[in-house]
Amino acid sequence: MENWQKEYRLTPDAASDSGILFVNHQANGRSGHLGHALVEYAAGKILAFYPNCSAQDARWNGHSGFGWMEYKRSADCGKTWSEPEIEPNSKALFDENCGRTMMCEKAVSPSENEIVLFYLTCDMQTDGHIWEPYFEPRCAFSHDGGMTFSQPELFVHEAGRIYDACCHDGRIYVLFFANAELPGIAHLQEHPYRLYVSEDAGKTFLLSSELPFQSTINCFYGSLVFCPDDRLITYIYDEKDEHNPKYAVSRDGGKTWDIPRRAFLEKKIRNPQLVWFSDRCFMHGRSGSWGKDKGHFVLYSSEDGIHWDEGVYLRMATEGAGAYSNNLIVHCPDGGERLLIQASHAYQGNKTNILHWWLERRMTL
User: Fold this and answer.
1) Residue 237: phi, psi to the nearest 5?
2) Which residue in 301, 315, 343, 352 has the most C-beta neighbors within 10 A?
3) Strands (DSSP E) along 240-324, which ranges?
4) pTM for the full model?
5) How far does Cα 5 stand from its chain's mean position?
């Protein structure tokens, strides 16, 4: 048992067949990898987004962005969920059959019932049905807890991908991976990571800084987290070194950054997702894509966001690619908090279902 498991309860327990089935794509022959926006728009009230995509593409066998977004709603801290609802903007773009789709990767709530939803705009023509090349990211707004959404508008007039977004001290922070040219390819060129900040609930975003990673060739994905001491930490994925992701620390809210360094993760990481929950930092993602012990869904813990334990597998991979994930801290009426973790898991080839886990602090006498 990991040390943190003595203080926290994981539901269900980490095991080869663990995870709560949230979306059964297998029943309909569908798939859903990228697009796990989660948002709490009022205490205990949640929207959990997920992709509903084709599983028929022969080249990628379900690893597809050819589809639209849906979401389920919970009004009781995630104990029960509504029937699926279609996210209107992504479905409208898909129905245009214009060669692009939109996936909802992140969402934030700057105040009660207010939601800012961030989209990745994908190219479905140049490279099949696998998201890239990217076009300009977009965002939409809801003022009624997700009952309706505005028309999408440009986040920035530049190709790229919003990898993370969070609210902190009345501001919205967005981690953007800029591909510059249209459309943009992420994997084989130098591209900057930039931090944008909004002080008016998402009406405008201003560039705060460019993160000082010396090289981003073969680097993509990214996540950011504010620590209790107000450090802002950003991690990015290095495809050539899955045990040692790069990270950078800011001590002034993202205006300036310390010299980037590398952390060590025993079970590797791909598409890392960070959260500071209760008294520690957690990181989860796919346990790499190369070498042995790849493709599993892994969870790490750290007391400082830099030095990590050996990690625990939440779900073992038996098929192809999965473990795209996100998390959300949910606030309960009794004052307690729960951490929701959502991830895709392959059921056949690269065709995926959507699973949930819950993490809670154990009661102490």
Assistant:
1) -95, 135
2) 352
3) 246-250, 261-262, 270-277, 280-286, 297-302, 312-315
4) 0.96
5) 23
